[in-house]
Each structure stands twice: as C-alpha cells, then as structure tokens.
Sequence to fold (473 residues):
Amino acid sequence: MPLTWTVTDAGRAALLNAQNNGLAPVTIAEFGLTETVIAPAVTDSALAGEVKRIATLSGDLVDDDTIHLIVRDESADTFTMQGMALYLDDGTLFAIYGQADAILTKTADSVMLLAVDIRFSDVNAASLTFGDTNFLNPPATVETSGVVELATAAETEAGADSQRAVTPAGLLAAFNVWMNANLDGAWTAYNDGAGSGLDADLWRGLTPDEFLTNSVTRALILSLLEYTPVNKAGDTMEGALILSGAPTADLHAATKQYIDGLVTASALLTKIGSVDGSGSGLDADLWRGQTPSQFLDAYITASRIISELGYTPVDRSGDSMTGRLTLSSSPTSNMHAANKGYVDNLVSANALFAKIKTKDGSGSGLDADLLDGKQGSDYVSISSQSLGSSGYRIYSDGFKECWGRLYVGANSTASESFPFTFGSWNNVTSSSYVTANKNTADDVGITSKSLSGFNASNYHDRSLYVEWHARGV
Fold:
C-alpha cells in the first residue's frame, strides 16, 4: 500500500516555476534515514537524527499521484530505520515520512533493497524525476512495466480485481464457470466438468490420484491460501496473532491486554493481600509496621540477650573473664585451649630435662654456664683449622700452630712460608737424618726462621724431605 509522505515547504517551493504560475520539474537525488521516531512537519528542513544518506536510488511514476521508489545500500552499516526523507539534487529536503514502528532493520552482512510506493496527496508526481534508474522495479500498471501479482482462480472468476494479472489456467477455469452458468442445459465440448453431470474416468488425461500428485502441490496450496499456515504440531509465528477476545476457558489463548491486566501493581497487591500472613513465606519490607532495623533496635537489646542466655557472653574480639574457664579435657589439637594440668606437666623439671637431653650434644646450640664444673673461660676453643699432612690450627687464646713437609734438594737450601704470620714469636722444629760419615751433627736442618717462614739446608748428597712443626703466638 502506498505511503503518504509530507512535502516540506522548501520542497513545495522548489516545485514552483519562475513565474509562480505552474510546476517545474525537480530531481530527487538522495535518500536519508533516521533511527529516531519523528513527527513529520511541512516546516522541517532536515531529517531529525539522520544517520545515513544514500545516493543509490531509482524511481518512476506509476500513477498521477504515486511514484515507485527503490533504495539500495550494500554497505556493512547497521541500523533500524524509523523515518525517511527525500532530498533534491541541490540538497533541499523535499519530503519526509516517519512512523512509530520500525520500517526495516539492516545487519552488517545484509543488503538493503527498499521498494516503496509513495503517494502525494496534493503534488503532481509527474513533476518528479530521478537520477539512477538502472535497478528500478516498480509495480506494473496499464502504462508501466513492472512487478505484478497473479490472480487466484476465485479472483479471476469474480472479475473485480484490477491489480492482479490473470493466468491461462485461471482464465480457463473462469471461462468454464461462465459457460456453465450461461449455457446451462446446452451441451458443448466446453461445458463439461463441475455441474455437467458427467462422470469421466480421466480428467485431462489424468486419474484422480495422478491429478492430485501432479497438480495439488504445497506451492499451489500456499498460493491459494495467500499465506503460510501454522503447523498444529508446533510452529513459530512470524507476525502477531490477534485473538478474537479475552480467554474464557483455561486452555484459551490469552491476549496481551488480559495478561497485562492480571499483573498490574494494584492487581498483584490485591492478590498478595489475600494470601499473606503467618506461613505465607513472604519477604516484606515491614513486619508489624517496623523495618528490620527498627525491630532489632526495639526488641533485641544487650540486656535482653543476657537475660535470655542467663549469663554474659565473652566477646570473641577480646575480653576479660570474671571467673575461671574450666575446659572439658586436655588439648588434642594445636588450636585447642590448654588447661593448667596440661601446662604444668609440660614444664615440670623432669619433663624439661628429658626434652633438653634430646637436643644436647654437638650442634645443639646450647650455651651452658659450666662444663664438667668449669666455666667456659677455662677452656681454649679452636677458631679455625685446616687438617691434613700440611695444615694449621688457630686457638681462641691466640696460640697458633702449623705443620708440613718441605722438599730440599741435595746440597741445597729451600724456603717454606707459614699459612699465616705469627704475631710475636714462634718455635720451629723439624725431623732430620744423621749419617756416620759426616762431622756435622745433622745432614738436614733449619738454618734460619722468621715470623712468616723458615729456611732449611741439606748437606747430604741426595735430596730429602723435611717434616716440620711451628708453634707460637
């Protein structure tokens, strides 16, 4: 059905010729759309809330007051169109249309191809021209080629529809009906069929089963119905189902108006008021006219709690007992409170001594006043040491000792450095070899020493090792 648009004052002014005594042709160049619900007015100069303007549109005159318009948008834009506008090639807002319901919704992966018939109540549509017409598809009229709907057999027989086209099959059926109605009782080759009284084995060469299989198809049924019926086993409606009235039986379908009336605030309050009270399970804002805070403040006081308990409870965040707390038994878990008997048993002399004995000895870390009846100062400890064939030991009182083995070649002298330097004095001893054919007392011996080392001489004709030991502070 054609949509009636509002031509703006600016659009109407553009139609007037220079002499103001007739109409001048204008060109509709662009189509605008908005997602805002609008109320069109002749004073509008722009489309309120316009979100997109499209130049890919085509149109043509299909009647004196009606044009057929096609708008195409192949972009990825998304929108829900509530209003439309037509712009002239100079940018003038020519006409505007809007409605409360969405006209169409476009998704990102769809192409909008809007075909609409526009009726102007007081504008000669012949004054309008369009730019691009390469995809125009208007409705067909006696003067314009375009889209046409085929008439059903019943519409063809009625002969009153001037909009739909007649098919050969529909024309034949209508002709046969006319013939039967107007040539009743006269036999011709054209008046058999329904009402003829003939009972043939075949109809157009087909048995009844063959005719039904070949001709009565789902597509034919849907075409005759002019709508898709709903499957009684279950289906999804594609539009609103308008009922004849409110339900009067339990299994009747309910209208929105009936349901809305049941769930108004006042209706719900009335129904709830009929079932509230003790045992209702309701969770209300007030209880006996009081909020929860008011009720607690008025009734649940500290004195009431102590009165009901029969004693003053202990504050879990910390408190002082005014009497003794007797436990049920000794603790068996780490976080259990301990009773006096348990603690006394743990710290008895025998218990403590038994536990200490499990930890004394080397590495225990115990620091006792006496060792075998003597003070620690009576003993000298080792500060550091290196034990081996060559090594040293340093004591806590400053005494040091070191030892080793020095190689001395035949008839030569060798030097040895201590692993540390003595502070004030040292004594160095060594082992040596005594031979019978020498006048000297020793063949090998210490010839000189210092706080950091010594020299040893070998008067023997072969190389020897000197084992030495130095002590001092």
Remarks:
- Confidence is low (pLDDT under 50) at residues 433-441.
